[in-house]
Amino acid sequence: MQSENSVEDSLHIRKLEVTDKEKGFIELLRQLTVCDSVSDEKFKERFEEIAKYGDDHCICVIEDVRSGKIVATGSVFIEKKFVRNCGKAGHIEDVVVDSSARGMQLGKRIVEYLADHAHSMGCYKVILDCTEENRPFYEKCGFKKKEIQMVKYFV
Amino acid sequence: MQSENSVEDSLHIRKLEVTDKEKGFIELLRQLTVCDSVSDEKFKERFEEIAKYGDDHCICVIEDVRSGKIVATGSVFIEKKFVRNCGKAGHIEDVVVDSSARGMQLGKRIVEYLADHAHSMGCYKVILDCTEENRPFYEKCGFKKKEIQMVKYFV
User: Fold this and answer.
1) How many folded domains does chain A comprise?
2) Which of A30, A31, A46, A98 is a plausible cystine mate for A71, CB 3.0–4.6 Å?
């Protein structure tokens, strides 16, 4: 049997790569919200559109190198503002951990990675929207409730 | 005396221009949050950084052409996602109406302009964060409460 340490050692956090589509990235996102099959071409196109933003849009993943599967992901993009003396704000989106990999603090690793990225980019804050149910998790990550989220759907 | 119509006619909605700094744009933002004096150089630099995103980051303003002052503003940026079949989400930020220009539905015009922009860019939704106090205003603009906003400050 593998020790706890060797399991942890096999979970590598890094930025999304274009080959991650073959490693279950889309199937993982499907645990979060609607995400039909995406063609290789469409995936590559979107990957490249996001890559153009450089460090202003960072998607991170955790790969389990034993299985070669992506087991967690999240993204952050950097919004350039005029307020706060031309400040920047980080927006965390689309955080999800594979149902088979919960209880290993992978969500916390993802959120900390993204918050550190926003901090290193000079953001004065990082924000995200979540359900009331997920509030305790984000509080453990150092976040506090501030406002409410409003949404308007077009489809 | 001017009629109601002529007042409305003098309020022009359009995209932010680099010359709007001289028209009170920064002073307007100061009614929203911390925004110290910004040098002309810093303003131009930030303006150009945002302009590079093209239609993916749109800042709109309402100018009162009688006074040559910017009396309302708001921004929206388009986030490119993998979820929702490589969908896009619009994020509305930094909406403010000058204290002297309230009661003329300028906030509604700004929010509708930004939501229309997001829609025309192919977004499946547009979101924003606001206080519970501002919820009725955004409901009038067609938004519904969904989640809660969490924040982590670095400064």
Assistant:
1) 1
2) A98
B4-B5-B7 Cα angle (round to 5): 70
- Across the interface, whether the CB atoms of A33 and B84 are under 8 A apart is answered yes
Alpha-carbon Rg for chain B in angstroms:
16
- In this structure, is residue B34 part of a structural domain? yes
Do A86 and B29 count as a contact with CB atoms less than 8 A apart?
no
DSSP code string of A25-41: HHHHHTTTS------HH
Residue A2 C-alpha, separation from nearest chain B C-alpha, in angstroms: 34
What letter does residue B97 receive in the DSSP assignment?
Answer: E
By residue range, what is the domain housing residue A135?
4-141
CATH label of the domain that carries residue A46: 3.40.630.30
Backbone angles phi, psi at A5, to 5 degrees: -60, -45
Whole-prediction pTM: 0.94
ipTM of the complex model: 0.94
**Cα gap A107→A113, rounded to integer Å:** 10
Q: How far is A99 from chain B (nearest CA, A)?
A: 17
Q: Is residue B32 part of a domain?
A: yes
Q: Give residues 103 to 132 of B whose Cβ lies within 8 Å of A.
A: 115, 118-119, 123-132
Exposure string of B43-55, with b = 16+ CB inside 10 Å and e = fewer, is beebbeebeeeee
> Could you report the per-residue pLDDT of B19-58, keeping only the tens digit for each?
999 999 999 999 998 777 889 999 999 999 999 999 999 9
CB contact under 8 A, A80 and B46: yes
